[in-house]
Structure formats: C-alpha cells, structure tokens
C-alpha cells in the first residue's frame, strides 16, 4: 500500500513509518515539525526509495490537496496531533486547531481525493485516538468500544471531537474509515516531557523524579512497537466504520512504574544511593484522571491481535534505549517547555 502517515516525525507516528516500510509499504510522512517532532526518529528509513517526506500542516487545506494529488495514496493513517495533556491545560487553543480543525481539513482533503478517484471501497482513512476520550474509571471496570465518551481535559476533549468528525464523515459521506483508541504508549523515541522518559532522564541527571499527587493514577501501558503493529493490522483487516480499542494488558500505578525504572537503573547504572531516593511527590495535575484500562476483547477476537511485550520487558528495553541514545534526548531537552512543570496554570 501507499500510505500517508500524518505525524510521522512524532513518537508513535515514527514507529508506524519504520514498521510500515519494513513490511514493504510505501510511506509519505506528512508532518508540520512542531516542538514534538524529530526527523531523527525516521533516519533509519529516510534513504529508502519507499519513503517521502512532506513538510505540511494539516490545517493547510491547499497543501493537503497537493499532497493527495501528488502521491495518490491507498490509505491515510492520521496520527498528527497536539498530544501532551499538561500543555493542553496551559494553552488549549492549538489543541482545538490541530486536533479538531486539522482533522476536519484532512477529512475533507481525503474525501475530495476519494470522490475524484471514483469512491474506491479499498481506500482507508485510519484515525488514531486515545482511551482518554472515555474519561476516568474507578478502581474496577474497563473501557470497551461502547463506553460513552466523557473527556475531561482539553486534550481528550479535542481528540473526542476529532473521533466524532471521522465517524460522521463515514456515516454521512461514506468515507471508508477505521478508528482506534489506545492506552498510554511508551518505548524508544518517546519525547522527553512524558512520564517514563522524564523518570529515566531525571534519575540519570541526579535530579528529583517528579510524581504527580501520590502516584496512584493507573494506566494500561502499551509498548510503542506493539501499537504500531496493531495499527497496521487494523488498517489492513479492520472492518469498515469500526472502532478498535488497543491496550497493552499491562495496568500499573505511576508510582510502581517509577519504582520499576529505578530498580532497572540500580542494576544498570549503580550509584551509592538507590534511585528511589530521588522520588519527589509534587502537586497533582488539575482534573487528573484516576484510572484508564482497556478491554481488548474486540481486537483480540476479531483480528487475533495481542501485545507481545510485557511491562517488565518493555521497560527494560526502553531504559536500554535511553542509555544508548544520549545524543538523541540531549538535543531535545533544550526545546521550549521541556524540563519545566507544565499544566498548573489552570
Ligand atoms: P507526538 O506529540 O509525539 O507527535 C505528534 C506529531 O504530530 C509531531 O511530529 C508533530 O510535529 C505532528 N503535528 C502536530 N501538529 C501538527 C499539524 N498541525 N500538522 C501536521 N503535523 C502536526 O504524539 P504521539 O505520542 O506520537 O501521538 C500520536 C497520536 O496518537 C496522536 O494523535 C495522539 O493523540 C495519539 N495517542 C497517543 C498516545 C500516547 O501515549 N502517546 C496514547 C493514545 C493516543
């Protein structure tokens, strides 16, 4: 397939780009290169004849039309988004513009291209979203694809809005779409403002390791390479108009994730005191959702997909990657806002 991947210079998008090219697909990486992007993430495939890059903002309809006309794709995998909840609290405007308006422009550009091509059923618009659209769980229960939407942050509300648009373009115009909502990703190339890289890098730097509240928030951790594999599975075999929840089957409290990373570093980079001594509990994020958990029954039973990596294996691989790729993360640490406490202005 020839696939336009939006946001392919970001964390998850770049994993999709690398894996899609490895699987023999052609990829057009369409990215505006915001603060969260890093083209080094796709350096391993950038010289491939199957790879092209388009420096385009999804809010620019004319540029999107040109990309569709030039590349004539079989599918779009839409990952471009503003993705950091803390930044959405300080400045929600860009989240509305990119995640909602940008998705609208991309849908319209895809629809115009698809109509011109004679409305082929084989075309796919794959929208990648988050489990955060479902809101927050108590101590029990799991999100299914039928859980009512209840977003609680500007980020999750903007993603919920984009999900509704994609469904509406399927129901109203017949655009062949599939949707996925996944849990928290982690792994190589994770931007150094998110929890797991922050823990690793602050630990190594001898700085306090910030834990919001009491660290009791629970997430279902999904290794990014597993997620990319699930996305390519849904793209190729998912039923039209259908949503699939993708989880890691790895629920853990934030404080336990932090302790596990400290224990791995105690083994790999031992020093006089245990890394857990650096843990520092800080004021919680406003409206911090307590627990997310995915019921993966649909993707498992309909598409036979399951994650391959346990949390212990994934954390070990992630820590190894950060230890071996210091040039990559050092270059990103000077970007605006990285290393600061964000999301408390509200
Ligand atoms: P990221 O922030 O690492 O990357 C986002 C990419 O999108 C960047 O390369 C950025 O330059 C690009 N982008 C942003 N605005 C753009 C615009 N207006 N036009 C074109 N490109 C633009 O994000 P990520 O963590 O890789 O997440 C990818 C997708 O997966 C997002 O849609 C996100 O909502 C979703 N998601 C992420 C997670 C997670 O744990 N990271 C969980 C669930 C869902």
Describe this structure in words.
By secondary structure, the protein is α/β, with parallel strands linked by helices. It has a domain at 2-187 and 221-247 and 291-309: 3-Layer(aba) Sandwich (Rossmann fold). The chain has helices at 11-22, 61-71, 85-90, 93-116, 154-173, 195-205, 224-237, 254-268, 297-303, 311-324, 326-332, and strands at residues 2-6, 26-31, 51-55, 75-78, 124-130, 177-182, 185-186, 209-212, 218-220, 222-223, 243-246, 251-253, 279-282. Strands 3-2-1-4-5-6-11 form a 7-stranded parallel beta sheet, sandwiched between helices. α5 (154-173) links the parallel β5 (124-130) and β6. The longest helix is centred in the N-terminal third of the chain and has 24 residues, at 93-116. The model has no long low-confidence stretch (mean pLDDT 96). Residues 6-7, 9-13, 31-34, 36-37, 57-59, 79-83, 98, 102, 128, 130, 159, 182, 184-185, 191 line the site of nicotinamide-adenine-dinucleotide (NAD).
Task: Considering the chains and any ligands shown, give keywords for the structure.
binds nicotinamide-adenine-dinucleotide; two-stranded parallel ribbon; Rossmann fold; globular; single chain
Helix content: 40-55%
Query: Strands of the biggest beta sheet: in what spatial order?
Result: 3-2-1-4-5-6-11
Distance between the termini: 44 Å
CATH class of one domain: Alpha Beta
How many runs of DSSP E, i.e. beta strands? 13
Known CATH architecture of one domain: 3-Layer(aba) Sandwich
Mean pLDDT: 96
Shape: globular
SSE order: EHEEHEHHEHEEHEEEHEEHEHHH
Q: Extract low-pLDDT stretches.
A: none
Quaternary state of the chains: single chain
* Number of discrete helical segments: 11
**Largest sheet geometry:** 7 strands, parallel
